Amino acid sequence: MSSIEHALQTLRLNPRFARNVVAWRQLPARPPRFAAFPERLAGQLTAALAGHGIRQLYTHQAAAVAAALEGAHVAVVTPAASGKTLCYNLPVLDRLLADPAARALYLFPTKALAQDQLAGLRELVAGLGDEGASRQVDKETRKQGNKETRKQGNKETRACPEPRPELIKELVEGIERDRALRQNASMKEGESKNPSPPLPPSLANY
Question: How far apart are CA 31 and CA 194, in angstroms?
């Protein structure tokens, strides 16, 4: 029995865990489905991918990239390790190649995930002949990171635009609306909910 099978069996035999499970299903493996690169994708990107041994995309990657290149909003819902990263990196890099003054802002929920994604992005960007176009800014590196980002953000412009306050305000208002809707839904269900913590001062001032 493998370590994964042992872990699953342990969970199945745990009454506290098992009572929250509605059904156990084992899905059989299936062969991958591939598709050609979207025609609109920059040739420099397909060449860089070929350098990494990637000569075609999975069907969901090709569909997501093609839609993003057309300007559509895309949501990719697939299992872990299914190649979601290329679904957004390829459209972003395609735009940056077409417009050197363009910028892309990536938001990740954890520092570890951000570092992992940044490493993969830099590896791909290196195949385009530019290793310094991406930087990470987090709580620990904010001051130095912002300074370096403005210096290194783009070789042509040497700067990154400041975030517009109206966009941040719109984001905060959306968070507040979502929070209010969830609290109202909980109250209607008769559940007692603790009040949500206030927004941090850095956002509440907008």
Answer: 47
Distance CA 68, CA 127 (A): 22
Distance CA 154, CA 149 (A): 9
Please report, for the chain, the start and end positions of each structural domain, with discontinuous segments joined by +: 165-204
pTM (global) more than 0.70: no
| Helix-helix angle 111-126:84-98, to 10 degrees | 50
104 close to 92: Cβ distance less than 8 angstroms: yes
Give the phi and the psi of residue 34 in degrees, each rounded to 5. Answer: -110, 160
Written in H, E and C, the secondary structure of the chain is CCHHHHHHHHHHCCHHHHCCCCCCCCCCCCCCCEECCCCCCCHHHHHHHHHCCCCCEEHHHHHHHHHHHCCCCCCCCCCCCCCHHHHHHHHHHHHHHHCCCCCCCCCCCCHHHHHHHHHHHHHHHHCCCCCCCCCCCCCCCHHHHHHHHHHHCCCCCCCCCCCCHHHHHHHHHHHHHHHHHHHHHHHHCCCCCCCCCCCCHHHHCC
What digits encode the pLDDT tens for the residues 49-93?
999 899 999 999 999 999 999 999 999 998 888 999 999 999 999
The CA-based angle 68-70-73, given to 5 degrees, is 45
